Amino acid sequence: MKVLFTFGGIPHYLNAMLNKLHGKGVEITVVTPQKGNATIGKGVKMVEGGTYKHLTTLEKKMPYGKSAYPALPEIVAEEQPDILVMGWPYFLQVFFQPRLRRAMKACGTRLVIREIPFQTPPYGRIKEYFRANPMYDEGMRLMSKGTAFHLRQWLTAQVRKYCYARAAGTLNYSTAAYDILPSYGVKQEQIHVTYNSTDTEALLREKAAVIAAEPLLPKSERRLLHIGRLVKWKRVDLLIDAFARVLNTYPDAELVIVGDGPELENLKQQAADLKIKDSVRFIGAVYDPKALGACMNESTVYVLAGMGGLSINDAMTYGLPILCSVCDSTERDLVTDGKNGFFFREGDVESLTEKIELLLSSPEQCKQMGQESERIIREKINIETVSERYLNAFKEIMQQKG
């Protein structure tokens, strides 16, 4: 079986999954941009590739406003893949580029669409959806407003429906796909939930070394941890506000913030203005796995106050209970309220404060929830099970009559 993937870049976690798939006998070719990327957030660390074949080609912003690979039809004709896996926005080429459709037909290549899906409105319910789920960019600027936005969304929904009608199957990070994709005409049996995972095998190997090493941080029984790029939609400002309230009840608590980004200085100033800077530790960007592991291993609770995803997987691997709200929908499959963490009301500082204090009041509950987090990673959502779900999805798609 030969599978061709298109990506805007190869983050380390994706590289691990592709290597796993290749090790399971799938012949993999990956296409990424020749220079930089336009579809992956700034600051996300990329790798050059692994055991699979890696091609680079020109990425171009098209007249319809999204990135595409103009030479993809020629690559398909050359590689002759059984399956072409395309994520957002690259699968829009299926609509806008007839040459790609012809190349796929000539090669007998089956289209598979890979999405989270995230911020995708059900078909026919655009205004209703964005009224209940406003869309913001990383700077927390409201995007879901005005006639032009809703018209673009309507047009995108028509193109999306066209592309889904031509897909042999879908790969999805979250069970949220079952709520959305059927409205676009996708059959239940075409929806394959793979979940998403970091390289849990590497994390667990490093964890043993981290536990045996000298502590990186001073000992604390009540340490909150946040990891991620410091942009507004991560809502670290909300976390700092909640933490300032928590200190009234637990003055020995500490907040550790790992990451860098445009909001760093604003967040430091916020902590200073609230007179809590001695209790907030800004670590900066950390890429060394052992240093990052030490931060998780020496913390009590992991908090994701805004958008994000994979940092939850990492924290769960290190046995931490999770506090989160609305993230990228993958949290729905990782966190069970009251079992391995809590959900708080989106954007609500009082709700977040309440959940933090609830956990900090019971070290035993923290420990039990952390154990459940690690169990979920070891048994349900890890690099082995995710790659196996990809493999099983590909096998089922290839068995379809086409």
Keywords:
402 residues; alpha/beta; seven-stranded parallel beta sheet; six-stranded parallel beta sheet; 16 helices; 42% helix; 16% strand; globular
Protein architecture, described:
By secondary structure, the chain is an alpha/beta fold. It is 42% helix and 16% strand. It is built from 16 helices and 15 strands. The strands form three sheets. It has a seven-stranded parallel sheet, sandwiched between helices. A six-stranded parallel sheet has the order 12-11-10-13-14-15, sandwiched between helices. The chain has a two-stranded antiparallel sheet with strand order 4-5. Helix 8 (200-212) packs across helix 11 (289-297) and helix 9 (236-249) packs across helix 14 (349-360). 42% of the residues are buried. The model has no long low-confidence stretch (mean pLDDT 94).
Largest sheet: 7 strands, parallel
Shape: globular
State the total count of DSSP E strands. 15
Termini separation:
15 Å
Individual helix count: 16
Supply the helix-strand structural class. Answer: alpha/beta
Mean pLDDT: 94
The spatial strand order of the largest sheet comes to 3-2-1-6-7-8-9
| Strand portion | 15-25%
Q: Give the low-pLDDT segments.
A: none
Supply Rg: 22 Å
Instruction: Please estimate the helix content.
Output: 40-55%
